[in-house]
Specification:
By secondary structure, the chain is of the alpha+beta class. The protein folds into two domains: about 50 residues, Structural Genomics Hypothetical 15.5 Kd Protein In mrcA-pckA Intergenic Region, Chain A; about 170 residues, 2-Layer Sandwich (Pseudouridine synthase), CATH 3.30.2350.10. It is about 25% helix and about 25% strand. It is built from seven helices and 13 strands. The strands form two sheets. Strands 5, 6, 7, 8, 9, 10, 11, 12 and 13 form a nine-stranded mixed beta sheet that branches. Strands 2-1-3-4 form a four-stranded antiparallel beta sheet. Strand 3 and strand 4 form a beta hairpin. Helix 1 packs across helix 2. The longest helix is centred in the N-terminal third of the chain and has 9 residues. It starts with a helix and ends in a 7-residue tail after the last helix. Uracil binds next to helix 6.
Length: about 240
């Protein structure tokens, strides 16, 4: 990778500032000062120092964001704040959300720069479980439960795959699904004769949203959490 790009991906400054700093002799590679921004480096092998500080480069980064309502699950948006705006300057430039949560939905959202990881988690054939807390407009009843559990028709070619329902209160349930169609949970509840008034994703595969992470906050996943998601076989649906 080019030296200037490498430093830029680490979020150490704008490309033009970094180029200037390299030319000014502020960057060394394996203890040798390098003044060419286009110098190629091996990210795993070379030891790069910027202004005397060693740089630690990770190929892939993984964050768990507690998405609040009102922000969109996109990398850029002309009108609305995005989930990446919440992560802001502290993170890399090449990250993106793994799938989407609606603007008015809250909860667990993974953010990464690992395309294969995201692709794999979202692959329809993987059937990764997603669990949502749903507040409902009307009392939840046995008929609605049966429809959701047997696979409700949401107007696609095939009915939705069977879901798992946990009733929490008269108008509050959790729904676990293994698909990720547009507005899927809202459409399933609507098709079953109810309406979602509040939606929060509380789990994806083996990863649960911890209560300690406030709305709008994010944290890095541990290595174990990443590995566990990569090998997730939690789905029994
Ligand atoms: N289902 C929905 O309806 N909305 C979401 O954001 C996620 C799942």
């Amino acid at each position: 990778m080019r030296l200037d790009r490498y430093l830029c991906e680490l979020n150490l400054g704008t490309r033009s500032q970094i180029k200037k700093d390299i030319k000014a002799g502020l960057v060394s590679v394996n203890d040798v000062t390098i003044v060419r921004p286009e110098e190629q480096i091996q990210t795993e092998r070379d030891c790069v120092c910027y202004r005397g500080q060693p740089c630690i480069y990770e190929e892939c980064v993984y964050y768990l964001l507690h998405k609040p309502a009102g922000v969109v699950s996109a990398t850029k948006d002309r009108r609305d704040r995005t989930v990446l705006d919440l992560i802001g300057d502290k993170a890399r430039k090449d990250i993106f959300p793994v799938g989407r949560l609606d603007k008015d939905a809250e909860g667990l959202l993974l953010i990464t720069n690992d395309g294969a990881f995201a692709h794999d988690l979202l692959a329809p054939a993987r059937h990764v479980e997603k669990e949502y807390e749903c507040h409902l407009a009307y009392s939840f009843d046995i008929r609605q439960r049966q429809l959701l559990e047997q696979g409700v028709d949401i107007g696609e070619k095939k009915p939705a795959r069977p879901a798992v329902v946990r009733v929490l209160e008269e108008k509050k349930i959790t729904l676990t699904i293994t698909e990720g169609k547009f507005h899927q949970v809202k459409r399933m509840l609507h098709a079953a004769g109810n309406e979602v008034t509040y939606l929060k994703r509380i789990r994806m595969g083996t990863l649960t949203l911890d209560d300690t992470l406030p709305k709008g906050a994010f944290r890095r996943l541990t290595k174990e959490e990443v590995e566990s998601l990569k090998h997730d076989r939690s789905s029994h649906l």
